[in-house]
Amino acid sequence: MLLAQPYEEVTLADIATGAEVSHQTVLNHYASKEGAASAAIELLRSETEGLRTSARRGDPTHAVEVLAEQYERFGDLNVRWAMSAERLGRLAALLDHARAAHRTWLEEVFEPYLPSAPADRRRSLNALHAATDVYTWKLLRRDLGLSRPETTHTMTALVRGVLNT
Hints:
There is one protein chain. The protein has 165 residues and is mainly alpha-helical. It is built from 8 helices and no strands. It has one domain. Helix 3 packs antiparallel against helix 4 and helix 5 crosses helix 6. It is elongated. The model has no long low-confidence stretch (mean pLDDT 88).
């Protein structure tokens, strides 16, 4: 329930109903809606990290396939929560952490292709971030109605363009 709707529309009663427990049980376990959301985000972070560790270093096609799998599972949720960032209070910091983790992942996976000069490296990472961001996936997959293979192909082409491969 908590992950299926915009954060601000979910109540503790909704969470309790979805979990088939009492409102008090949710409060006892998580202390607040924010606590329940933090726990849910931690589960997603853990699953996302598990997926991303399978990406082969220096392989743009495989890296985008890994991201596509993640986005097919959680992309709509990620977009919905990111769109609510200004209303998430302290939870917004978790979105900042996720963006930083994505950037670190990009740097690790595409290290063989990244320029060594700091300004060029930063520009390349910015472009890779744009090419692989969940909003790019949403634009291609949801807004333009591309199939998963078409979306993956397009994102891979963007990544290869940045990396000149």
